[in-house]
Amino acid sequence: MAAALLAAATAGDALAQDARRGAELATSCLQCHGVNGRSQMPDIPSLAGQPADFITIQMILLREGLRNAPAMAPFAAGKSDQDIQDIAAWFATLPPGPPDDRRARDAALFAAGQALSGPRHCATCHVSDYGGRNQIPRIAAQREEYLLHAMTQYRDGLRAGPDTQMNGAVMGLSNADLAALAHYLAQLD
Amino acid sequence: MTIRRHLLGMAAMLMAGPAFAQAPAPAAPVPGWAVGRPEGSTLAPHAARLTVTPLDQVPVSSIRLPQGFQAEVFAHGIPGVRAIAEGPNGTLFAGTRAIGRVYAITRNPDGTTRTRIFAQGLAQPNGLVMIGNSLYIFAVNRVLRYDNVEANLDSPPAPVDLTAAFALPTEQEHGGNHHWKYATLGPDGRIYTNVGVNCNVCDTDRDKFALLVSFRPDGSDRRIEARGVRNSVGMAHHPVTRELWATNHGRDWVGNDTPEDSLLRVRRVGEDFGFPYCLGTWADPQYNRGRACGEFSQPAALLGPHTAVLGMRFYTGTMFPEQYRNQIFIARRGSWNRARLSGFDVVVAHLDAQGNVTRIEEFLTGLRDDASQRFADRPAEVHVLRDGSMLVSGEQMGAIYRITYRR
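Predict the joint structure of the above. Result:
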């Protein structure tokens, strides 16, 4: 009984996932998300080192038409649960890192973002190194303009996760606040 | 132990105050959901599982029941399954939250089940009501009615859109908080549902949020049945007294053991259960606003801290022993906002002849492992079938369990 409980306890580890199969399935992903999973394209997020549960859940939200990201629609449509989980498992194995074109740190903006991160409890869910866990994404070293886009969507009610924590987390923040948070998080490694 | 945990929670809360004061002033005020939330806590909601769980991994063998009861897998491969409504011909409709689907489950002649995706792409379609041959789906503020539904499971007709008539608050108005619905048909032919609060805790519009409300089935004649109810995601009417009973979630971030989730008995239309000021005799340490808790209606029972009480049904069948007749079965989906797991089970609230809760019995257990602090599934709904057996939906593993009794 204990073994069964252990095996089934969290969303990702109950089903056998095949990262090697995922690597083959993910070839079309890399055109935009980067050959090493680190996106070099504006507005496209890096997936290297993202928790597998996060990628799986987001792909299902995209597949089901519940998350609006038109560029992803043709890739998510009709994907089986197993394909999605294998792709997610592979991206999770890739070492994360910033994009090659990450801009230089703006000390004032970085400090402003850091100051917001405490009261907004970002690390509660995203973990102190902002590497994410389970359904919660890695946001350290993510592309800055993508972070701003994602947080703006959550704030403006244009995106919801599997729960509504992120909508609450950014509620009431100004555009300048979000820009500061995005810069701070993008600068972390 | 309970007191110590309580004190630890209080200490964490008190520490949060000075931390806020010393930090650079944030550009925007801390939102209601974060009040009392200690910096440094790593508690977060558990990951939803939106993929199909193979049958051999559905943890039915972990389930423990009182003597004479058995559990079996009734249906599986239903990611996110929650609320259940039954059609006159026996079709079971099941709502979900994150995956946006409503499933239709029918029984094959050999006793197995067939599951169809009846509707999809909806926002949190958890609220389902059957009235005659019509299925009502409540997806946040959207209300859709599918007529003659069981005759058209494979090609559902275009629904009648009743959204404007019900005029429930939108996801935006809720600020993304507690906007999903549970819905049930009352013995008076009205639809009863919840309007959860638009925050974790806040001074809210108490005529708009934190309510139980009812409507005529066309969406007219909205009536506040109860106010000061933070969020109810399960309700049912007593089969004899016809009183409305409801489960209610307590707020987060104010300690491991406070406040408790609760069972509410609505004796008078419009009575006030005290949110955000009080829950029972417990005064909210930040939002009491000097109110005496005695001025509010008291819960019929406390159901444990952060247990996440969801679906509830009065047992009206005859298969189970007589002692369960008209008693309340309650699914406790299980905690996240607590250092140690609580819930992940089904309990029974036993009532005396006057309708007072005399005790809470653990009924379906085994899904929570206290040693490893892991869980195998999350019960989200109970439903009594016509043969007297009981269905329990397991949201995490996308399965519905059937509970039967043999002497």
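The radius of gyration of chain B is 21 Å.
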